[in-house]
Write a sequence for this structure.
């Protein structure tokens, strides 16, 4: 009698975990379909054509960077809240800004505004090393843990003030800023390598996305898109 009970208990437990595995596979499959649709209808259709960027957007599991309560919205055409009053950018904006960097694979990239870690994960597919700075400790710690669990080995996350850049690892071939300052911070210009580029939203209420390039020490600023980002905040003294 006792043996039969134990056996049936084991069967129920095994069946349940089998079901759970099947459920996870199903969910992964439907997320992967949603990712393909996201790339077709939101990104390619608006003109992003760099194959490497499109592949990175197809590969990185955006839903894993979204809080569980709203994970089902991960592949929608909009920014989403990630806690602490911050947001993860709309997929198209992530793809567009990444394409502007024109990464070939060997670069060292600095990101200001780690947030969820999603943009850093996209960059990590496309360059050699990613250095990312987040001013809100809770977000930085969460992103660092998630990226480690996802096995990213070429991303370094730091809690700090992006206005100062990351002198220790400068110069950077590219810099991407995902929060908006009112002016381009001088340390970022100083830490940009010769021939490199910065993609940065600038402005208070009205913001423009700029592509800034440094050639022979001279800066060329090109406005490429009107945008709306969370403000780049100043560290409390
Ligand atoms: N790239 C992120 C989205 C970031 S939202 C992602 O993929 O999810 C912008 C982030 O910039 C927020 O997390 C905000 O806390 C951070 N931020 C704002 N001011 C900052 C500063 N001075 N230095 C570093 N990070 C800053």
């Amino acid at each position: 009698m006792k043996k039969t009970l134990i056996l049936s208990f084991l069967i129920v437990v095994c069946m349940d975990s089998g079901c759970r595995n099947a459920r996870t596979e199903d969910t992964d499959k439907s997320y992967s379909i949603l990712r393909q649709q996201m790339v077709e209808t939101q990104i390619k259709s608006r003109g992003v054509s760099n194959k490497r960027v499109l592949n990175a957007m197809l590969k990185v599991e955006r839903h894993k960077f979204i809080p569980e309560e709203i994970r089902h919205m991960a592949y929608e055409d909009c920014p989403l809240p990630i806690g602490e009053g911050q947001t993860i950018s709309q997929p198209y904006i992530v793809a567009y800004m990444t394409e502007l960097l024109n990464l070939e694979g060997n670069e060292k990239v600095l990101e200001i505004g780690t947030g969820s870690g999603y943009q850093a994960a996209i960059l990590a597919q496309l360059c050699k090393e990613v250095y990312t700075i987040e001013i809100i400790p809770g977000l930085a710690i969460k992103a660092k843990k998630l990226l480690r669990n996802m096995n990213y080995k070429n991303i370094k996350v730091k809690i700090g003030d992006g206005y100062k850049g990351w002198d220790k690892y400068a110069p950077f071939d590219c810099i991407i800023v995902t929060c908006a300052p009112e002016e381009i911070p001088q340390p970022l210009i100083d830490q940009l390598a010769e021939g490199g580029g910065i993609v940065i939203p600038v402005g208070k209420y009205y913001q423009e996305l700029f592509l800034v390039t440094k050639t022979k020490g001279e800066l060329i600023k090109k406005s490429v898109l009107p945008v709306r980002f969370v403000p780049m905040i100043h560290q409390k003294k």
User: Anything to note?
Assistant: The two ends are 71 Å apart (CA to CA).
